[in-house]
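Our collaborator T.R. sent over the components below with a one-line note: 'Predict the complex.' Nothing else. No constraints on interfaces, no templates requested, no preferences about which chain binds where. So this is a plain run: every listed entity goes in together, and whatever single assembly comes back becomes the starting point for the next discussion.
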Amino acid sequence: MLLSRDAQGQPVAIRREDYTAPAWWIDTVDLTFDLEPAKTRVLNKMQVRRNPEVPAEPLRLHGDELNLARVLVNGQGASFRMEGSELVLDGLPDAFALEIFTTCCPAKNTKLMGLFVSQDTFFTQCEAEGFRRITYFLDRPDVMASYSVLLRADKAQYPVLLSNGNLVEEGDLPEGRHFTRWVDPFKKPSYLFALVAGKLVSRSQRIKARNGREHLLQVYVRAGDLDKTEHAMRSLVNSIVWDELRFGLPLDLDRFMIVATSDFNMGAMENKGLNIFNTKYVLASQATATDADFANIESVVGHEYFHNWTGDRVTCRDWFQLSLKEGLTVFRDQEFSMDLCAEPSARAVKRIEDVRVLRSAQFPEDAGPMAHPVRPDSYIEISNFYTVTIYEKGAEVVRMMQTLVGRAGFTRGMQLYFDRHDGQAVTCDDFAQAIADANPDSELARLLPQFKRWYSQAGTPRLAATGQWDAQAGRYTLQLTQSCPPTPGQEHKQPFVIPVNIGLVAADGRALALQLEGEPAPQGESRTLVLSQASEQFVFTGLSAEPVPSILRGFSAPVILEFDFSDAQLLTLLAHDGDPFNRWEAAQRLGLRAALAAIRDPQHAAGTPVLSAQFLDAMREVLRHPQLDAAFKELVLTLPTEGYIAEQLDVVDPQRVHAVREAMRLQLATALAADWQWAFEENSDTGAYSPDPASAGRRALAGLALTQLCLAARESGDPVWPGKTLQRFKNAGNMTDRVNALSALVVAGHPLAQQALARFHALFKDEALVIDKWFALQAGAPDRGGDVLPLVRQLMKHPDFSIKNPNRARSVIFSYCSANPGAFHRPDAAGYVWWSERVIELDAINPQVAARLARAMDRWSKLAEPYRTAAREAIARVAAKPELSKDTLEVVTRALA
Ligand code: 0A1
Ligand code: ZN
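Returned assembly:
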């Protein structure tokens, strides 16, 4: 086992190629906890045996911030030594009982890894390497053991004591204490261990599965939050039903629990049978949660539940394989949310939303200093690799497999994967092999080694397409050429296997039949071309007029498509494409094109229009369209983000990008004022609240309309819409309408915003998740004369602010540094200086959160002067800080490399 710091105390990179199987197995773990915040005692009794398949080695157990009291081998005091934080035992028999007694201090655990206290309740977080903060162990995912857990604590303060698996015994102890004993029927790696102890209440539901087995489902929260658990429970039931229907995967436990905590570094955690969630992804009521919150809860509850098979039953051999469980499980939760949509158009909306996340977060990651393959080759701190590449790009890789083998073929592949690997710790190769083997005649099977470059090569491929029309022969030749830019450590890339879904649209909007050269007859109006060479030609025949190509339908591969569409072609696709994704994409391209032209034109002056009359007319047509859904309209009418625009530029002047996008937004607001008013009135009353996609879509469009109307009113000085907006804010019957109205006033910078913000705070002062929204709205507000940074400084002094709570820290600090480019990138560099101070401050409290914040500067090298130099200095200031965590050090070191 490698030490993670060298002799000088510098962090050492862990490399995938150095993987070796463990020299020892731990078969059983019997844990006893005496829970006390200041000093928790942990007795860990293990059965250990030598792995006969690898050369003999001492037993090296991981530990972190533990106080070691005793080590017994077969009941006898044993000699051991410490090497750094590792506990090393020599001269051991081939199989033995090992007993280790340690203590730790959960009350002082601000990293929120291992055992910690949140609002007087104990929680654990063990992924990826947190179990070693609870006891000495082989804390690696390929060591799978059977766990039995005894929890003891004061009964009045900690009436609920939970761990993984089944409750087998409980009872009282002297001095007001009590105990529970839990046995997990499945072997698991240490990262899936969990315990919870505190004053909690639960919503319980019993369900009977299709096979007749009964299960107890529970959602545990603090007293007072029980009325916000209905949606999470419904989402859990839906997840269980869906996994059984779609993949034949049943719930394998008698009892499945979800517990919510307000102090959590991430979204949620899939501990076997005892999922621990950030409250943000559990608690919802129409008064306190938005439609987006409801949708996120559904997908995160689904995600964690789906891990029960993809992650828990079959886990990762090592952390380089993280996407084996994460990419696959994101794919599964995306499919789940889509399958729950009643309308096909709602499925398309979900796909567009997912692609927006990929393009706005993963593409920049893949182009920046932290770029890494879906299966990385090395890391310094594994926590830094819970990234959009591992998750979202990993999900796209799985989606491409499904595209190549078909939906039924993919389900067959999943079955084979579980037949082969249930109960094992495996690799991404094992997964891809199972999908291919179950579909031997597929393109995936034919091209498997090449397809797997998606796992090994980083960077976003470019797909350059050109079309050639031969009117005489009625042939349309599409040339597809791929390339991939260099990424850190990978100068040259080999061609990928790229599934390209395609259709051809006539100038009048009709979908054309697709017949490739050599085929006897047309085969449908949409099909998948598979590009595996650097460049290939596809010839469509039997056409009577030049078609408009609709390429990469449904975003069938995570690539950047370059095609020199004319405006007229894009307008045809926007008006007629049968593929909703490409219809939306056409509008994005038109908007992007206008933005880039204005940004690049040195003559372009502030105040001159950016958008053409033609574009505005097309937008009006979509907005007023009698058949299109409100949700889809809202997506089309939302301009590309500043971040997405910036990614298209080699050198970024963030203030110019901001100014141009603001000008576009204002132009859209004023030119379509009457249409926005119409759209608002059409969609403003959604009746009794339900978070379903159709009504959520109408609220989203009404919200966008309100923002546009308030923006236009600011220009004209008209008081009517701001007044109406304040009224809507006050009378709102749900959080979506309320926060949308509030946001419209804040975004427009209207004086009424202050009044509304004060009222919002007073109304929701006891609702932490709503107060997070209150902070985030202000820290994310459009900058007017540099006013956001002073406001953010003030917010940090607000009595409700605490930097120790990750949700609160994110609501202020991340909203400003990562989500408000116009305010953050100040010519005086004050935003960057403030960022560096916050990274350093956070690093001493919670390195994981600090390292995430450090990533706000990932794209610094693209910035124009004076931003670039100032940004570099700020990063260097962080890097120079002594005793930085390896989390933050890895991020800033890569940024400066
Ligand atoms: N496996 C979890 C994500 C997760 C990872 C690390 C954590 O440590 C702080 C917490 C959660 C998931 O994918 O949901
Ligand atoms: Zn996950």
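Summary for T.R.: The first helix runs from residue 230 to 247.
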